[in-house]
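Can anyone check this?
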Amino acid sequence: MPDGKIKLFCKGADSMIYSRLAKGLQQDLRKATAENLEMFAREGLRTLCVAEKDIDEQYYKEWSKDHDVAAESLQDRDDRLEEVADRIERDLILIGGTAIEDRLQD
């Protein structure tokens, strides 16, 4: 971390990633990626989107403490972890999509 930045990478279903992308950016890439993912899905491939975000080291340290508290929670642990993850997985920048043949599902 020579520049004090941490790079967060997220992968997931297109609907989840698209809902977490930075608003108003990358419209052409979003459209092209969605079209490609739809084509791949029609071919029976398993698709995912990948996005990234630079995170300030101080923000990460604060977030990490909140994550640790949520992970150690005895009540509503899953909900608390989801809330903490939701806070950091916002304003992402789309990298693109992937498609693989998933033979285990055949």
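Reply from J.R.: I decoded it. Helices lie at 14-19, 27-42, 57-72, 77-88.
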